[in-house]
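During the no-cost extension, the postdoctoral fellow (Dr. R.K.) reprocessed legacy sequence entries with the updated structure-token encoder. One reprocessed record is reproduced below for audit purposes.
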Amino acid sequence: MSHYGMKEENMSERAKKQGKSAGVAYSEATPAAWAAHNMDRDKLQDITKEMLNSDLDLVMAAGHPFYNNDHEKLDTPDYSFIYEEDYAKLSEGKLDWNYFESNDDFKSMAEGDVEPDKKYWVIAPIGSTLQNSRTGEAEAPYSDELNDVVDLPTMTTGALNALGQDEDGFSVMIEGGAIDWTGHGNNPVRDIEETQDFNKAVDAAIEWVEKNSSWEETLLIVTADHETGYLSGANEVPTEKNPQADNKFNAMEGAKDEVARHGWYSGQHTNQLVPFFFKGAGAEDIKAHAAGTDPVRGDFIDNTTVANLVFDEWWSNDAAKPSEDSTTEQSPQPAPSEDNKPSEPFKEPKPGKDAGSSKNFGAGVATGMGILAAVVAALAAFAQQTGLVNVNVKALTQLAQRVGLR
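Re-encoded structure tokens follow.
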């Protein structure tokens, strides 16, 4: 969704337009943006309804209305995640989905029991998440007995098997979303458990690619949308001053080779840099778009650059490609179409003698037009939303993109 309440094309829709399969597999929230359009993330039932009516080929998730977080049957169903009417239609086979809900179903799909041209909707027999919310004291990793429910690696392999039946390729978003919950709750035990489960899911994806595809035709990206909890060393952040403002930190405490100590310094999302791993087709494009180099962590890239690469440039053979030795970020380019051919990216004028020369006049005009296009797009979106006029907001947005402002 745009800021103005207008539906924007998501990754799965772009993949389907290219004749590819698309799906999501998750234990929490993020993949909804790959499958639905809603201004309110808390409207869970509406989001599920849109996903049910979408062109997706696969949905795997937690959130079964008949089970609690310990894999126990509820006395009264909980329809927080799906409307009762929708669940009835889904489970009774009245919708265009092959519906499964048992652990054995997940295992069968992971073992290759899938068919081409089938749509799969698979709900794990569990409440809100797979393992994170199970009953227990969380005194040490796995000190609380795991509930008998499928894990993310099994879901990952099953999802790849199902979508991999498409000879034209596929797009899939797989998330270990409960890691976010452990950060909000400052729970290191569950954080370790969820992270290890996610790491095993990555291993499963790598194994699938090397067995069923190749790195020449498949790209795997492993990253996060944000960090949560500000997890760091024990007593690392001063309590009397703002470390971000003062740029000061305490030395980490704890003797070498002893049990690691830690501290949580937030209960919310933070602006910490997050890891970004990638391998396969398109990897060189990512390297070429690095925005800079951190002295400790190495090269870094803006998340919006990744989005533009994945969403726009890689879908077309005619899309602009960075040079081999490029180390600067290029402005995003819209996907080419009959009335929207790729244009040269906007470049900032170089400081010094070129900054005020006439040859940079075009860049200045482009900047001004970008601002104008962005403003016009905003006004047009408002006018359309209020019913005053019907306008092509997408075309105006593309205009803003072409001059490098969006």
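The radius of gyration is 24 Å. The CA atoms of residues 81 and 206 lie 31 Å apart. The remaining legacy entries will be reprocessed before the final report is submitted.
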